[in-house]
Structures are given as structure tokens and as C-alpha cells.
Amino acid sequence: MEVREETDSRMCLRHRFMKSYKKNTLALFFCFVLSIILITSLLILVHTNHKMENIQGKMLFTDADCSISEIDSSQVEMLASDPELEWYALRQLQYQEYQKDSPDNHLDRGDDRYITLTAVVEKGRLPEAENEIVAERWALLNMGIEPVCGEKIEIYDEKAGRTEVCDLVGILSDVPSNKKYGVKMLYAPIKSEGEDNYSVFVRFRDGITYEKKVEAVSRELGIEKKQIKKCPGREDLPGLWLTDLKFISVLLVITMIIFYGIFQITMMSRRNPYGILRAIGMQSGQLRRLILSELYEIFLFSIPVGGILGTAAALLISQLSGDSSQEIYLNNEKVSFAPVIPFLQIGICLAAIALLIGIVGYFTGKKIVREPVPDLIANYGNKEKDSVFSMRHFHWKKDGDRHGRTYTLYSLGNKYILKEKKTSVFVVLTICAGVTLFTGLAYQKNIAQHYREDTAEMYYLNGQYEMGTLSIGSAYDGVSRETAGEIASLDGIRSVKTQSGIPVRVVDDKEVKRNDTYYDEMNEAVLENRHYPLAGNDGTDQIYKSVLYGYNKNALAELKKYVIDGEFDENGLKDNEVILSVLHMDDTKKKNKYPGNYKEGTPLMQYRAGDEIRIKYRQDFDTNHMAYEQLTDTDGSYSYKTYKVAAIVSFAYMYDCNITVYPLLITSDDQVEKLCPDSHIQRMYMDGEENLTEDDREQLERRLIRLGSRFQGISTRSMMSDIRKNEMLFRKQMVYVVGIAVISFILVLINVTNNLNYRMKIRTQEICMLRAIGMSVKMIRRMMIFENIMLGVFGVALAYLASVPVLRYLYGQSNMRAFGHGYRFDYTAFFGISFMAVLLCILLAGRLSKDWKTKKIMEQMNKVE
Description:
alpha+beta; six-stranded mixed barrel; elongated; disordered N terminus; membrane; cell membrane; transmembrane; ABC3_permease_C; ABC transporter permease
């Protein structure tokens, strides 16, 4: 009974404190709510984003754990009987058939699961008989076949030397890996009389240790471990837990810094009533329980509010980022992008906060009860024993001596910074945390911007529609110039970028410095695999192979932003001018041994603007044969031409059909046409009018496909969905950054405002005395502004020391090094954010001192704090 009465009494007292100190209660409540919003929304977004990126990886690389290559039917049977397999997909190797006279149209054979690993049957059904096939809509259109079930398709069996008629029984959704590169594929069931050589995609059951299982499979099947390749789309759960740990640690640090500052202000303002309670008989343990129970009650009320708002914010961000609008298919099913709510991680984070709150509350209460009761009642803990007006520290002259007035102002400001050490420390720490966080967010925004641009480059997302060849053998590959003109004049086409090309040999004088190690390795590998060299002596000159590409005006204009040396006129290059596109090696940490389209790093060949380069090309432009590739075409007549290098670019912009490793030569299209009037266009990027409807876009795509299908080896497809996905990812990251910034700004603002407000409140009597001896409100405001500026500067200085490792960590976690971007501290963002932080301190000082215009001196001096 006594325990219950004591509990009821403490509850009543706790609620009275909460009501009497509404501002402190609300400050703690909002601190907890905003912290929980930040924790909940971030963890939901991290897990949802991880799941979405994992699904996007599976979209390209399948939902399998690994693939096992080159095994026979007996090994397949052994694998199929493994009880630890969830499923497997079977592909028949080395039995590709082709459409006659169309060697770029491939036929792939596999079981039902293999055919639909990254697709779904949109119309019809999967093939059952050996003469039944399915294909993607865009691929069929490019083959000149109407995507309608029941169509008859002639397939030429190259091995048997005969033509077979197959039935189209189903239409597949776009297979991302095919559409990305323009590979036109037909799918059929496994052929019973085909070769006994298979590739298997395997998914293990949940809970199976991948490394141990791979070793067991390798041993049981009697195959080499290199035949088992891990799927790039396999989910990295240990990596997710590590990310969770990092996020939770950072969030706990930010939350506790802000909470501790607000809580200390709350405790300081209650010293007097706590002293009175101790004087009338409250035990030290009862007082500690009173403090803890109030804290936990506020925290418990904030959990549902913060949890609901945080979940709603995460769902809103997911909606705004466009996650749910994506259509991705795996294993003949549509994959949904439902938000992932990690209850365990959120629970762990909340439990950790509750534990830390208890520790802070316990030790704070313990410190309070150790103080003498008279000191608590008199609130000596908030005051200096020595008078702040001791003339030893400063002198005051009302008139005349401006130096004395300034000296007094600065002395008071510095004195109060040292006098209120705790609040000074927490203001500095809060400013430090805020500036560091916002600098990190600004850096993350730059990373997202780089990733957006680099991804668009890597996947050549240079137009809404793309038409081109998979390789270039001669200047006559691609679409004719007449057809290119028809395309440019189509209704609905807004702009066209074109690329024509002529295979050439560059006379190599060996004077240009180069990466011989890399070129020697590449030449050896190509010679072994393709049986022809990339460079060598053709009987007349020492040469390396390249392509002279001709860009139209629109393409040259896009190329301008990749210039790293020299300059050129996008309206057209002169007859003797050329642009070189040179791959670079990664210089950031020397870990990436492969070259790329880097804006930084050492070029594979160190040409400079102004250098001369000499090429030779066959006069008949007949280069699409092995003799040309093997440098044995001694019967060919060659013409020579010398160019001046106008500029060096890091990226060629238009797709290089042959993936040339030696420098590419780029000129204007009219120059290529002069050399070879009958040359074709190997690649085109087209943009439609902005006001086109979805039906208009579909009709435009069909017209483009019909025009492109006139020529062999051409793939035409819409890149709209890929562009939207790339933009969606960037938009999602920007929404994340803005959302985190808004919540963090509110948290920082609440904490700084509370600390500064408290610093002003506890010196009320002293400021009144200063006013009584002649100090104006204007001088008080100046004193506070100076004090806040000093606190802001200290916070910014500490933030710089914290921001350097934070930005290096963000850089290390991103893929920027792989794209050739070196680390640079973002001074622009840091100093901009620092200026805003100091300005905020000044504005808060002005707002807090405004009340002193109306406060009565004697009334405030008689107030008991």
C-alpha cells in the first residue's frame, strides 16, 4: 500500500513538473520525436534502398546465387538431387542457331526457368516443343517480325545446314541484359539431340553458407572451383548489417549530443525545486527515480509519434522517388518494391537510446543529490561566486573612451563563454555536428550527381531512342545516309546525334609516351582469343588500329564537356583537325588496373593538343575481312592523311562499336563523308518531341525500328525506361538528402536555441545590473552577438577536423574512385554551411536580446531563478 502511494505521489509530482516546465518538456519531447523520425525513416530507407538495388542487380544478373558452367547431363542430375537447392535454371551451351542471312539474331535454348530468369511472359505461353520459340517485343520488331503469337519464323540450323519453321508462342518482357547492348535473342526449349554441355544457374536455400556450399558442390561434381561464378546480384546481408551498425552509431551520437544539451538545461532550471524537495524530506533515491520516470515517460510517448511520422516520411520519400513505378521481373513474376521496415534494427536503436537516457539521467540525478541542499535552493550551481562586475577584469567608461567600452564588451563575452562551460561545450558540439552533417550531405549530393552522370556515360544513355550496330567492320556498316535523313525528318523527332566511322591505321612513330605494360597485355590477349593483333607492322608501317569517327553538330556539342586539353568548334572541324579520345588509368590509389573514361589519371597514350597524328586508310574501304585484321592485306592500296590534334577528350560520348583501347579519332561527319561518300551511320541517338503521348512514342519507336531493320546488324530500341530509372535513382538520393537535412536542421536549431536561451536566462539579474549602471540594450546585443560568434567559430573549427575523415569515408564507400574521381575536400560546401551556422548564431542572439527593450530592470533583478 505504501509503495503504491509513493508511486502515485511520484506520478503526481512528475506530471506537475512536466506541466510547470512546459518548454523543457516540449523540448525533450520534440528532441525524442525528431530523433526517432530520423532513425526510423533512415533505417527504413536504407533497407528499402538496399533491397531495391539488390533487385536491380538481379534484374541484370539473375536471382541466382551462382552459375556453374560446362557440366554434362549426369552432373546436372547430381546437382538437381541436392536437397539444399531451392531451384536451378538450365541452359544448353554451344548449340546456338541463327536466322539465315542474319548472324546477329541469336537463338538460345534452356528450360522454362532459364528463359524467364529476368523476364515474364506478357502474352501467350512458354515454349514446349523444340520448334516453338518466345522472344522480346523489341527484338522481334528489329527482326522484322510482328510481335503476335502464332507468327511463323524461319530458323536456319547452322550445324544441320537446313532451315526449320518455328512457331512464336509467347512474347517476353524486355530482358535488361539484352536490351542494354541491343542483343536480339530468340528462346527455345532444350534440344534433346543437342550437345551434352550445360550451364546452370543455382539458388541455394536460405541459411546455407555460400562459401562452404560452393566448395561442397565443386567437390561433389568433380569440377574446378573457377567453373562456379558468384552472381553479382547476390544479396550482401553482412554488408547490410555493417551499414546498419554505422548508421545506428552515427544516429546515436547525434541524438545523445542534442538530448544531453537539452536535458542539462532542464536540470539546471529545476535545481531550486529539487532543493526544496530534498529539504522537506525526499530521499536521494526517490529524487533519482523522479528524474528517470519523467524522462522515460516523455520518451515512451515520443516512440509511437516518432515511429508513425518516421514511417510516413519514409513511405512518402519512396513514393516521391518513384520506386513503386518501376517494373522489374524475376522468375516469370513481377517484383514489387514494398518498403522494408527493419523492426529489429529500429528496436535495437530505441533500446540503446533508452539505455543511454537512463545512464545520463541516473548520473545527473546522482550529481544533484550530492550537492548541499542550501546550494540547490540558492541555485549556486548556476552562478559565479565572484562578482561579474569585478573591476579587476575590465573597466567601464560611459562616455568618451571607445576602447574601454569595446574592451568591456569582449571581456564580458569571453567571461560568459568560460563561465557557462557546459552550455558552451554543447553549443559548440551541436554546431560541429550540424556543420559536419550538412557538409557530408552536400558531399553525398555531389557523389550522387557524379554517379548520375557517370552511369549515363557508362550505359550510353544519350538519347530517348538508340539505333546502331553491335560492331563496325567497315565504313558501310550501319544505316545509309539517306535513311538517316528520313529519320531526322520524321514527325515527332526533336533532335538527332549521329556517328559515322571508318576503320583506320595510325602510323605509330613510338615517340608518344604510353602505357606499354597495358598495351602489351591487351595485344597478347586479343591475339590469343581473336587471332589477330591490335598493333604491329603491316609490311609498310608500324601501326595501331583505330577508327576515324565523324560526329554531326549535335554530337560534337555534347562532346565539348569532356575536353581536358585544347578546344574545338562544334560547328565543324577543319579538314586537317581531329579530336582524340584517350582512355586513362586510375591514379587515385593505383588499385584499379583497368583504364576508363576518366577525367583524371594518366592517359594510356600521352598526346597533347597541337600534336600531329598520321593515319592511313584503304582506298576501297574494304576492311571487313580477316586479312585486314591480321595486317596481311598486301593487295590493298592505302591513302595517308596527317591531322593536327585540336583537343583531347576523356570520353567519346558516342558508343564505340569496337571498344577500341587505342586512342579514337573524332572529326565532323562532313569530313568522313568527304573521304567516303557512301559511308553509313553506325549509331544514332534520337530525342522525341516533349509533347508526345505514350501512343505517339510507341508509334515513333515502331517507325524507327522499321527504318533500321532495312539494314543488317542494326538494333533499334527505346531507352526511355533506362533513362527514367537512372533519373529516379538520382531523384531518390536527393529526396533522402533533403529529408535528412530538414530533420537534422530542426534538431540542431532546437538544441542551439535552447542552449542560447538558457545562457541568456541564467544571467538575467547580472544583465539587469549592467543596465542599471548604464549599459544599453544595444551593447548587450553586441556582447551576445560576439559571444555567439565565438561559439560558432569554435564549432566550425571543430567541424573541419571532423569533416575531413567523414568526407574521406563517404568517398571510400562510394564508387567514385572506380570512375576515376579523386578525393577533394568540398571547401565550397563547408565554408558556405559554416557561414550559415555563424549567421544563425548571430540571428538567434538578436532575437533573444530583443526582449530586453521591454523588460523592467528592478522587476527582473528581484526574480529568483
